[in-house]
Amino acid sequence: MIEVKDVFFTYTNNVEALKGVSLKIREGDFVAIMGQNGAGKTTLVKHFNGLLKPTKGSVIVNGVDTREESVAKLSRRVGFVFQNPDSQLFCETVEEEVAFALRNFGFQEKVIKTRVEWAINLLGLTRYRQTSPFMLSGGERKRVALASVLAWDPDVVILDEPTIGQDYQQKEKLRQFIIQLNTQGKTVVIVTHDVEFVAECNPRVVFMVEGKIVGQGAAKQVLTDRKLLARASIVPPQISQIFMGLADFGLPTDVIDVYEAKEILLDFLEAKS
Amino acid sequence: MSVFEGFRFRRVFSPIHELDPRVKFFYVCVVFVIAVMFTQLLPLILLFLIQLPFVLMAGVQKEWIKSMRGASLLALMIFLFNFLFTYFYREYPSFPPSSSLLEYSLSMTLRFIVLVESFSIFFLTTSPDRLGLALEQSHVPYEFCFAFTTAVRFVPVLAEEAQTIMDAQKARGLELERGNFIKRIKNYIPILIPLIVSAIRRSLELAEAMESRAWGATDKRTNLYVLKIERRDYILALISISMLILAVYIWLFLREQIPSLIPLITA
Amino acid sequence: MVGVLCESRAVDETLAIIETSDLTYTYPGGTEPSLVDVSLTIEKGEFVILTGPSGCGKTTLCRCFNGLVPHFYSGKLEGDTTVAGFRVSEHSIYELAKHVGLVFQNPENQLFALSVEKDVAFGLENLGLPREEMKRQVDWALQMTGIADLRERAPHELSGGQQQRVAIASVIAMKPDVMVLDEPTSFLDPLGAQKIFEVIDGLNKELGITVILVEHRLDLASKYANHVIVMDEGKVVLDGKPLDVFSSEDARLIGVGIPKATRLYQALRESGVHLNSIPVNSQEASLLLQEVLTRDRG
């Protein structure tokens, strides 16, 4: 359970990145934090594992104030997958890379072996076990980074801009993977500005503009709320754009999914004939 | 880190900022020569004071004070080292140490401070691109000038990247503050390797971009900006040369007559 | 078996600005070729979108257009590329730079100087242009990309979108015939991406610069293109008008990010509802759907 209580945060160069943010994330939630670059999304999630501590207000993770625990301890429960996997890759083999955090957290060797095996299999990296992570392609490196976080089985998984530079198929796989994680009971938080991806995932959406939360709710509601979208300078998903243009026909406006759209249109046409 | 603040350029406009870096460098060299010439305290104090108007004209007081503060620790070490070493070498076992020794050590320290002062003024008032331009126009091969300005351009980028890498590794349980000395050094490997790998990747991308913008098309590369020597540069050059001539004159003929400041110190 | 759609475009050889024939390339030390028998023609003034799954060879192909392949990357190159009348293998990169500009994915790593102005002038300085002429071209390029007010700023102070505009300005300052952009909006948010596409589109329409844009975000970019090329595993598998390419079955199979509007069209078609034409963006889809919904009403 992550609770953000009226948090303000100012960077050392005097830029105020968070201006009074309050948010509750419950166990098993699936949340997408959205907004333009510079809205404060990454700043906010860096408070969840203690990388940043609030200038004012507090962040409580599982009952503990983040100011009273080290990043290492908080990270044990809150896993953070950074946007660029190259920020963390340094080992000689994929195996070692995935084991790194487990060693830091003090797991026993036997447990480490099992966990590494499991994580590598889960992300389809078995044939790269002994390969140097630097030899892998961009997409594969992202999977190594993901594996190395999942290996220690955190309760919360935060993904910072996971869709950047990914092609459609990679995004599809990622989407299915994230949903699977959430179904297994993990709390998943994604930070993104990719509306279409969020439309397909259908999580709870939190909109941020200039350090404040301007709206939150189910993806369907939030991504079709014209006023909110305009405030957050967000381009609505294509499907909801299409349905906004069909408002005169009395069709529902909170549609974001292609197949739902198809069904609604087919129903409408059937009702006509 | 604040001592570096004392050297970092800020975009401000002042007559000192507008001076040609080559002339400023000449001035710094002159100060260096004069500082080395004299071991007596009085000329060094004068040299120190003479430069203060430049600091005020440039409006860089705050940063300059930071650099002075940063240098003060080193200055203290120089003083102590000088004092103790010379005492044990020359005057031991007579006690107490002579006041001329005190004066001498103070001079050595002040010499160092004067040099920091002039270099600080130089770097605080010279933008890196002007500096690169000065190098170019002084016929340093373009590759070096380019390497210099590009390096400066990427300093903030690398700093941010280092921070991101540290965050990423901390989020994997890496604790940088714990452990004995050896462990702490080892803990920096997960920071250094990604940084170095990223630097290599970045260089490759930069090289591609350079090639794509006609790098190497001609030996006669032109420049958007040009440094012109203006009247104020002549003035500074004149001042520097005068200082130098005066100093040489004093050193040659009036050296012996420079009053010692011992009475002032011991009073 | 995927096929190549060329019939939808009548190709006029005399208007070709880029032509490749049977281009096959393997990076040094590579076990498989990154490009396999790539043959395509791009006409002057076209706005081309080049897309395909990661690793399909789009980036390598871009580098064949401006000479980075084979001059910078060595490796094994077979076949030919001609750009603006120049055979790429026979001219150095700096010669080709006057005719083909390349904008890269990461905005930070293509800006070297400490001010925007100087960066835009970089290519011109390399070419040894006289200062007066350089100043004029720099001013012009800054105007065209809408960043004249940023001219004295340092690149690190700028947002990603602004940095990319500086990169674009520094490329067009050299007045090339062709501008190739390799996923220029990867690091930008959708609004930033849209601005970049608008700038590129403006340059294409106003100055007639041929644009080759490598993109995954077809939702945002497809409305500007009049020619789409899809690659997969080093080969060109689709090449034609946007409508034809996006609505083809092969595009779906390869896993290209077809615009949702087109996908809705396909989904409806499968269920027996036909729209009058194929939409690629939401406005088109709305209009077409309105037609269908009112048609059945009456």
Task: Please describe what this structure looks like.
The complex is a heterotrimer of chains A (273), B (267) and C (298). With 273 residues, chain A is an alpha/beta fold. In chain A, 38% of the residues lie in helices and 22% in strands. In chain A, β1 (2-10) and β2 form a beta hairpin. The radius of gyration of chain A is 20 Å and the shape is globular. The mean pLDDT of chain A is 92. Chain B folds into 2 domains: 2-126 and 229-266, no CATH class; 140-212, no CATH class. In chain B, α3 runs parallel beside α11 and α8 (142-170) packs across α10 (189-212). The longest helix of chain B has 31 residues, at 61-91. Chain C has 298 residues and is α/β, with parallel strands linked by helices. Chain C has 2 domains: 13-256, 3-Layer(aba) Sandwich (Rossmann fold), CATH 3.40.50; 259-298, no CATH class. Chain C contains 12 helices and 10 strands. Chain C has helices at residues 58-65, 68-72, 93-96, 116-126, 131-144, 160-172, 190-207, 218-221, 242-247, 249-254, 260-270, 282-297; strands at 16-26, 35-43, 47-51, 76-83, 86-87, 100-103, 178-182, 210-214, 227-232, 235-240. In chain C, the strands form 2 sheets. A 6-stranded mixed sheet of chain C has the order 6-7-8-3-9-10, sandwiched between helices. In chain C, a hairpin with an 8-residue loop joins β1 (16-26) and β2 (35-43). In chain C, α6 packs parallel to α7. The N and C termini of chain C lie far apart (43 Å). The model of chain C has no long low-confidence stretch (mean pLDDT 90). The chains are: A alpha/beta (273), B mainly alpha (267), C alpha/beta (298). Chain B binds chain C through residues 127-129, 132, 146, 149-150, 152-153, 156-157, 202, 205-218, 220-226, and chain C through 63, 66, 68, 71-72, 93-95, 97-98, 101-102, 104, 106, 108-115, 117-118, 121-131, 134-135, 138, 154-156, 170-171, 174.
